[in-house]
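User: What would this chain look like folded?
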Amino acid sequence: MTTRQPVNVGWNSDELAAPGTYCLILRLEKAARIRIGALGGVPFPAGWYAYVGSALGSGGLKARLSHHVRRTGLCHWHIDYLRQRAVVEGAFVTLADVSYEHRWALRVSRTPEATIPARGFGASDCRCPIHLFHFKHRSLIGTLERFLVAQIPPKQLLTFLYYRKNCS
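Assistant: Here's the prediction, encoded as structure tokens.
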């Protein structure tokens, strides 16, 4: 349930073929050391991860989220390396022609329960210190939702999309 009225769209909906900002929620069952491009080998504790990004280009959120749920051998972004081991559980999304990515990353970075697994993760193209955050417990995702919704205009909708591999 979201703190604003949810939009009834599916993970692969054409309504998501529009620009927007997302916060991908992932779960890593077991701690792992993963090589992340130029960042090198990074230790990732088991738990929940929130990855903040935006999709303002061609295909919008639909194309970007579809990319993130596919596990391929070719890694383009930092998150692709983590996706080799972590499972996508869902994503918070908001449709907008402007990006809230950096605002969201800054706000989540100030959350006491969030830890930073690797400085620079997902932020090689901006001045943010990081776009990936670790949470020990799933219950903190509700807290995350409140922080995200507080960073968008009052009439802007925030929706959580549950990802189910067999339904996309």
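DSSP finds four helices and seven strands in the chain. If you want, I can go into more detail on any region.
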